Amino acid sequence: MRHIDLLVLAAALPVFLAAGLPIAGYVALAAAWLVQRTFMFWAERRVAASLKAGDRRSAMGLTGISTLGRAWFLAACVLLIGLLAEREAGLAAAVLAAVLFTVQLSSLALARYLAGDPRR
After folding, report:
1. Which has the closest alpha carbon to 33: 77, 81, 68, 92?
2. Exposure winner among 72, 81, 97, 99, fewest CB in 10 A?
3. 20: Cα separation from own chain's centroid
4. How far apart are CA 113 and CA 120, in angstroms?
5. What are the distances in angstroms from CA 109 to CA 11, 17, 28, 93, 104?
6. CA max distance for the chain
């Protein structure tokens, strides 16, 4: 459930190919998505360590910084794709990023709710 966004990312490739969307937008955004997912994994481990040590302030700060930082990172990548490749590639990447973020945030919230996670 926590990695359903990666399945959506993989499923988007045939859609891009079938619809004739710019593949440069997909490749660049897929790379950026994997980078931000790696950062998210690292941040989650640091938050867990901070919570285990009883440092809630550090955990909250890291959660906020990592969430906003990942969103800004993807926004900058979409902008660069649109400027460096072509506008259509940037638009396709922006739509894919919006779908992936929506799926990821929804699946994380649902997974925590179903697991009875006390951090919700």
Report:
1. 77
2. 72
3. 24
4. 7
5. 22, 31, 27, 24, 9
6. 51
